[in-house]
Predict the structure.
Amino acid sequence: MTLLSLLQALGTLTGTVVGENAIPLAQARIRIAGTDATVLTGRNGRFHLDSLSAGQHVLEVRLLGYLAIQRPVEIEAGGTLDVQVVLMSAPIPLKAVEVQAERALLPAMRRFEERRAHGNGHYMNRQEIERLQPRVITDVLRRVPGVQIQPVNGPFGANEMVRMARTTGVMGARTCPVLFYLNGTPFPVTGDFSINQYVAPEDVIAIEVYAGMSQIPPEFQANLLNARCGVIAIWTREGNEDDRSPRPPEG
């Protein structure tokens, strides 16, 4: 096949990502499932993906604070498909995080390292998470001893719910649901929703997993929330910021 015929066999996908109020959303992560084709939306919410093989694909769109969405798209050889994606805001308030200018460990990451030094739970930093090459957050959590991933059917298709191996109830018939924290704030994942719909692994800089009350640090023992089954604390980047860990000088 010549280069010209190869290019003619490929197509292009463009589009706009907006919120429920029709305001364009910047920095949304656009990906074609099963490929390395990934881009971020610009300030106007626009994105552009070219050199896509013709045929049926699944478009994945993620943005922290919004429910992830997947939708089928059909790329025509030599053509351009333009789509609009509307993201629904996650019905959970997020705690504001102070962003520091200096390249040093964020306060949250200093406390993460302090807790890790005590060794009461299971800890993974950004580098350890990246080595797993996870597609979704549950790909990371399934590697943690005591964590169980249960497939369920949710309102947006197949989901994966996170549970602990211990059981609840007099007869011990139900697996134990965990309590999530996101950037230090309780983040209850309820109903048939999965943590995968709220957080993408490429945005995560650290994860802490505590299997039961005896392991949970005081800052994660929410008085009004059920944490007896265990806690999973997730720490994310803000926008395009990295984890601000010290880096060796270049050159």
The two ends are 43 Å apart (CA to CA). Residues 167-173, 239-251 have pLDDT under 50 and may be disordered. Residues 107-118 form the longest helix (12 residues).
